[in-house]
Amino acid sequence: MTERVDRMLSQAPDYYETSAIYKKIQTVQGDEYDSISTKNADLKAQLRIKSATWGLKYYEEALRIPVIESDSYETRRGRILSSWRSPGNFSSALIKTVCESFVNGQVDVSIDLANSQVLIKFNGPYGVPEKIADVNDAVENIIHAHLGKTFSFKFLKVSEINAMTINTLNSTKLLNFAPFGAI
């Protein structure tokens, strides 16, 4: 029996203690109340983009984003948040907000008008973010057509590599190292 059923039975008059029928009725009612509570909690989770699961498709449809159910919830949430935040005037703050919706923060954005470039620097974990293709698509939809974009990423420095032990070096992901030829 659940805690709710126990509570319901404990509040009944003593002469119901021996009634199997009463206990069964209270058990069924308690289970129904528990089921309703669980469904309400799930529905509440769907009302927030960051906790939604099956409700993501409704956000995507409302924002006219393609519904790709094979993508992870995190990827879909990033697309939704990006689209949700992107309406408005073009600015570095807008691009920063959109990029951060995919990579959970740690992005610096500057606009170099002299060179017609938007510079996006990822300051978070080492390497290229996993969702860089989605970030690229979102940024392309925001920036003006005459502007280019440049991404820069954080990689391990030679001084950091020199300070590592062999065991640490062996357990470090290869993606944390700069690609060959990168400066």
Task: Write up what this structure looks like.
The chain has 183 residues and is mainly alpha-helical. 48% of the residues lie in helices and 9% in strands. It is built from 8 helices and 3 strands, in the order αααααββαβαα. It has helices spanning 3-10, 20-46, 56-62, 73-85, 92-103, 132-140, 158-162, 166-171, and strands at residues 107-112, 117-122, 148-152. It has a 3-stranded mixed β-sheet with strand order 1-2-3, with helices on one face. β2 (117-122), α6 and β3 (148-152) form a beta-alpha-beta unit. The chain is elongated and about 85 Å long. The model has no long low-confidence stretch (mean pLDDT 85).
Number of strands: 3
Characterize the main sheet.
3 strands, mixed
Radius of gyration computed on alpha carbons: 26 Å
3D shape? elongated
What's the mean pLDDT score? 85
- Label the structural class: mainly alpha
Which residue ranges are poorly predicted, with pLDDT under 50 across at least 5 consecutive positions?
none
Q: What's the helical proportion of residues?
A: 40-55%
The H-and-E topology, N to C, reads as HHHHHEEHEHH
**Cross-sheet strand order for the largest sheet:** 1-2-3
Specify the number of helices: 8
Q: Ends: how far apart?
A: 64 Å
Attribute tags:
single chain; 183 residues; 3 strands; elongated
Strand-helix topology:
Layout: H1 3-10, H2 20-46, H3 56-62, H4 73-85, H5 92-103, E1 107-112, E2 117-122, H6 132-140, E3 148-152, H7 158-162, H8 166-171
Parallel strand pairs: 2-3
Antiparallel strand pairs: 1-2
